[in-house]
Design brief:
It is built from two helices and no strands. With 148 residues, the chain is mainly alpha-helical.
Length: 148
């Protein structure tokens, strides 16, 4: 036969209550442990997010500086079309000045040749006048010699 059991409803209740209490304590410990782990992970994630935001902010600041430099460069550097327009203007001015220089050179050449012609004309006139005066003097001498 079987030996009578020491278990009564009260002892069974106490035993099950103790087991339940042990399980609840274990669950509370696990919960607190997981809670601490989650808090540590959240804290690390917050730090990582802050660092990532700081890095992104620094990158955006650098990109904005680069954009500003490009904008300044675009404002201050001369464009190809402006260079070509300046080149055309200088070329046209050069051509106009070359044409003016050619006209001035032709005018100077013309004046020099006229001067040479006038100078040659004066030489001929002085020569003719000298010749005429010489003839007049010879005629005057001849007339004065014959009158005597």
């Amino acid at each position: 036969m079987s030996t009578p059991s020491k278990w009564t409803i009260e002892t069974l209740h106490e035993h099950l209550s103790a087991l339940r209490e042990t399980d609840l304590n274990r669950f509370d410990e696990r919960f607190e442990s997981q809670k601490a782990a989650v808090q540590a992970a959240m804290s690390a994630a917050d730090r990582a997010v802050l660092k990532s935001e700081a890095d992104a902010s620094e990158r955006f600041r650098n990109v904005n500086e680069f954009r500003a430099a490009l904008s300044d460069q675009q404002k201050t550097l001369i464009t190809r079309t402006e260079v070509q327009a300046i080149e055309r203007a200088i070329s046209q001015k050069h051509e106009a000045q070359a044409a003016m220089l050619d006209r001035l050179t032709a005018t100077v050449d013309k004046l020099q040749s006229e001067r040479q012609g006038t100078k040659g004309g004066w030489t001929a006139a002085v020569s003719v006048a000298g010749f005429v005066l010489t003839l007049v003097t010879l005629v005057a001498i001849a007339v004065s010699v014959w009158k005597r």
